[in-house]
C-alpha cells in the first residue's frame, strides 16, 4: 500500500517544498530532512513521532490515489480527497439526524457531514476513506456536505 | 460524619499529640532566672568538651606541650568575654529577635544576610550532631558498656528530641532550668571540692595520668605555633550558642533588651569560670587525652573516658555517686544544647522562607504550633552527620564553629555600619559618646572574631572544615535560586495596572466517556448544568466492539448530547484526547475548552492498584495546555465514604441519571 521508504521521503519532501512555495504551511510540518545518508534518514525516522510518520504515509496515499491534498483545497471547489477519519460524531436522537466526521490526510482536516443519516456502517474512526464533493466553509472550517464516499480496504478487511 | 481513624493518623496522634488551636500561640515571656538556662544550655554545655578538644590537639606534640593549655584556655576565655560584650550591643540595637541574620541583612545587604543564614544553618545542624555525640560519649564514660552503641544511641537521642519538639516543647521554662542549674551546680561543686582537696594537700590523679602519649612529631617554631593555633581553634567551640540570646530577646520579660544584656553578661561569666575551673582541674590531675591510637598504657578493651569524666573521677573518686550524677547531668545538658538548635533552626528557616529564600512549607506551623518541617529537616541532616562521622565528637568538631564565626564576623561588621549610620544623624553629645563606645566594642569584636575565623579556617581546613566551606556556598546558591524562582513567579502572576478581567467568548465543554456508568452520567448532568456554549461527549476508539456497544447504549438511553469517537491508531488514550482538545482550542483563540472527567473515588490505596490511573495522567497532561480547564467530577464508591454515605451517594448518582434522562430533548440545539 505504501511506496518504498526512500521514494516516499523524497516525494513528501518535494510536496512540502511545493506547499511552502505557495505560502501555505502544511499542518503536519516537520523539519525538512536533508536528502542525506540512509543513516540520517533512519535517525529522523526514530526521532519522529508516530503522528508525523502517519502524516507522511497518508500524504503518499494522496498521490497514489490521484487525489487533492486538503491543505490545497480552495473554497467552492469540486475535489477528490483521500485520508483517514480522525473522529466520528454521533448526534443525539433528539436533534436533526446527521453524521459528522473529521477527515485528515496529513496536510489538513475537513469536516464531513452526511445529512439525514445517524450511522453509516463502515464510517468509523480510523477508517481510510475516499471522498468526492464540493468544499465549503463552515464556521471558518473546510467542510463537505453529503460527499460520495468510498471505503478503502484496511489490512483487517 | 466522624473522621475515619487510619493507622497512620493514630500513630501520629500517639507520637505527636492532639493538634493545638492557633490562638494558643502566645509568646510567653521569661524572667532572667529562667531565660538564662533556656538560652545558655548550648553555650554552657561546650564546657563539657572544649577542654578536651584543646588537650587532644596538643597531644600531637606529646606531653611536653600540655603546659600551653593554660594560655590557650586564657585566650578562649578572653575571646568569650569580647564576644559577649559585642553581643550586648546587638541586643540593645536589635531587640526584635532577628539575630545575626537581621543585623547583617539590614546593614550589609541581603547577600551578606544570606551568607549569615547559610552559615547559621550549617552550624545549627552541627550543634545537634556535636552535642548529641558528646552527650552520648559522656554517658558511655559513666557506663562503659555503651561504647559500642554510640551511633545508634545518638540517632535515638536525636529522634527523641525531634519528637519532643514536634510535640511542641516551646522553651518551656522549668524543664530547661533544672538540668542547666544542676549542671552549673555540679561543675561548681566539682571545682570547689577539687580546690579544697588541692588546698589540703591532696594530689588529684586522673586515671590517664600514667598513660604516655605517642608524639606524632617534634614541634618547634612555625609548626608549634600552628599547632597552638589549632588547639585554640578547637577551644573556640566554647563560644557556640552565645548568639542564642540575641535571637531570643522577644522572649524576655520587659525591659527586654536590658534583661537580655544582663543574662548575656551572666552567661559569659559563668561559662568562662566553668571553663577555667575544669581546665585547671584537668591540668592539676594530669589528664592525658589523645586519640586512642596514640595513648600508651590504656588497659586493653577500654575506651579512654572523656576529660570531664576523668576530672570528676579524680575529684570525687571512681565509684562516687557524685561522679555518676555529674556524668548524667553533663549528658542531659548536652541534649538540651542540641535542643536549642531545634529552637533556632526552625525559626531561622521560617524567617528565611518568609523572605522567599526557602520553600514556603518551612514557614507553616504544624499541628502543635511548632515549625514541623524545619524540625524534621534539621533532624534529618543531623542524623546523617552523626551516622557519617560515626558519632565521634572529635571528628565532628573539626567542621564546627566555622559557621558560628562567619556569622559573628558578619553581624559585628554590620553593627559597625549600624553605628556609623546612626552617628551620621546624631548631634547629642551624650548619645554620640555612647554610640562611639558601642562602635568601639563592636569593632574590637569584629576584629577578634575575624582573626579567629582566619585561624579556624587555616588550621581546620584540611581536617574537615572544607566540607563546611563547600556546603555554605552551596546552600547560599540554592537559597538564591529559590528566591529567584519565587520572584519570577510573583512577577509573572502580578496583574498589570490596567488589567481588566475578560470573560471567554465561548466555552466548549467536553465530557470524557469510557463507559456509560453512573460516574459518567453524573458528569454529563453536571456539565449540562454549567450551561457551556457547546457540549459534547468524547470517547476514544480502543476496541471497535466496545465503541459500538457504547454508541448503542448512548442511543438506547437517549443521552441528549452528541458523542464524538476519536480514532486511536496506536491504542493510546491520553494522546488522542490531548490532540483533540488542542484542535478544539486552536480553532478559536478566545475560547475556553472545559474537559469534564468523571472519576470514581476508591477508599483504599490497594484498590487503586487495580485501576489504571488514566484519568490522573490525562488530567496532568491537560493542565499544561493553555486555555483548557479540567473539571473532575468525583463519584465516591461505597468504600470511600466509609459505609455511611453509601445510600446517599448512590441516590445522588441516580438523581443525576434521572436528570439526564428526563431532560427534554432541546439540548440538541447545544450544537449549533
Automatic annotation (TrEMBL), chain B:
Stretches the record annotates as Disordered: 641-672
One Pfam family cited in the UniProt record for this chain: AA_permease_2
The keyword Ribosomal protein belongs to this UniProt entry's keyword annotation: no
GO annotation, cellular component aspect: membrane
Main localization category: membrane
Organism: Actinocrinis puniceicyclus
Biased composition (Low complexity): 649-659
Transmembrane segments: 68-87, 108-126, 146-166, 178-199, 219-242, 263-284, 322-348, 369-391, 397-419, 440-458, 464-482
Topology with respect to the bilayer: Multi-pass membrane protein
Subcellular location: Membrane
Family matches, as PANTHER family: POTASSIUM TRANSPORTER KIMA
Keywords: Membrane, Transmembrane, Transmembrane helix
Domain of life: Bacteria
Protein name: APC family permease
GO MF terms held by the record: transmembrane transporter activity
